[in-house]
Write a structure and sequence with these properties.
349 residues, alpha+beta, 8 helices
Length: 349
């Protein structure tokens, strides 16, 4: 079966699982264990079906040993079990390099691995080797984590619609200055006077733009303004990645149709989008509270987004696979479905 978190919602056996079964895990930090053979240990916060939380401490070698055992049991090439599945890939061994750099690089990869692993069927969740790996031993209980850097809440949020100015009095958002007075002919058109600064929202076509002035939104002719900062402009970070795209593409899957909508955030799409903020934005955008957020993985299957870690996974998997080439668009695409519609997920073997 596919590695989909929503699988648990469709599997009636899931409700019968014991409350102490692990259902999610996230690496909070990596710390050096000194000794004859020093190595890095990952601090992992495990969440149980019943809501319990605890920390375990595992090194990469233990991940690798678990992977070997699961592949022996569940891969289609081995017929030791009646149930088979595609065990998610584990990041490979690295023999050369700085140990700390290697450990830090493995953290997001191992988080993805555990996310997919614990999204498999009940048969895998009840596997003895998997439960032993995520079980909190006496040594785990006695181990005090040195720090929990990756459990600290993100400080970046979806930016508000208020104008944001820097030290020079200029806004960081896309803007245009009115060159002439313009009086709108109807409620859809924006009225402004020469010298007004308009916050740009959308490019309607080559001749018309949409913007906001004094809390009023409307369209206006491009020839009446001077562009201060274009919608297509963005800021690149140290890695050469666009950090303030102002658009993202959204697919709204209704009962009888699919609507494609390009959604804009006036002050830009944050690099680290918050799940609750994005869900609230989509509920407002489509006027429906009973929705679910999703993305398509590289294989084309729909994956339900349920927390911030899923958002990170969506962004990470979009790199190198995105079909979007416009510089003012985020590389990822969002799929919005009805919350009770499970038919969009692929649960075939």
């Amino acid at each position: 079966m596919k590695n989909q978190p929503v699988q648990k919602e469709k599997n009636s056996d899931y409700d019968q699982l014991p409350d102490n079964v692990p259902v999610s895990a996230h690496i909070a930090d990596a710390e050096l264990s000194k000794g004859f053979n020093s190595h890095y240990v990952f601090t992992i916060q495990v969440k149980q079906k019943g809501g319990g939380k605890y920390f375990i401490f595992r090194r990469y070698r233990q991940f690798y040993n678990l992977q070997v055992k699961l592949q022996e049991k569940f891969t289609p090439e081995n017929h030791k079990n009646t149930y088979t599945c595609d065990v998610p890939p584990l990041p490979g061994k690295v023999f050369i390099g700085n140990k700390q750099d290697i450990a830090e690089k493995r953290i997001p990869e191992l988080n993805i691995y555990m996310k997919k692993l614990l999204g498999l069927s009940v048969s895998v969740l009840l596997d003895e080797d998997l439960r032993i790996f995520f079980h909190q031993t006496i040594g785990d209980m006695e181990h005090v984590p040195r720090s929990l850097r990756r459990l600290r809440p993100s400080t970046q949020r979806v930016k508000s619609n208020s104008r944001k100015e820097n030290a020079n009095g200029k806004s960081d958002a896309p803007q245009a200055e009115a060159l002439y007075d313009f009086t709108g002919d109807n409620d859809l058109e924006l009225t402004f006077k020469a010298g007004d600064i308009i916050n740009l929202l959308k490019r309607i076509n080559d001749d018309w733009l949409e913007g906001v002035l004094n809390d009023c939104t409307g369209i206006f002719p491009k020839s009446f303004v001077r562009i201060i900062k274009d919608l297509s402009e963005g800021t690149l970070n140290a890695d050469g990645e666009l950090t303030d795209a102002h658009w993202f593409r959204c697919f709204y899957h209704d009962i009888h149709c699919c609507v494609i909508r390009d959604v804009t955030l006036r002050d830009g799409v944050p690099v680290h989008m918050e799940y609750t903020e994005l869900l609230s934005l989509m509920r407002t955008e489509f006027g429906n509270k009973a929705i679910a957020l999703n993305y398509r993985d590289p294989e084309g299957d729909m994956v339900r987004i349920m927390d911030n870690m899923d958002i990170e996974l969506m962004v990470l998997e979009a790199k190198g696979h995105s079909k979007i080439r416009r510089p003012d668009f985020a590389t990822w695409e969002l799929h919005v479905t009805r919350k009770d519609d499970l038919s969009v997920y692929n649960t075939n073997p």
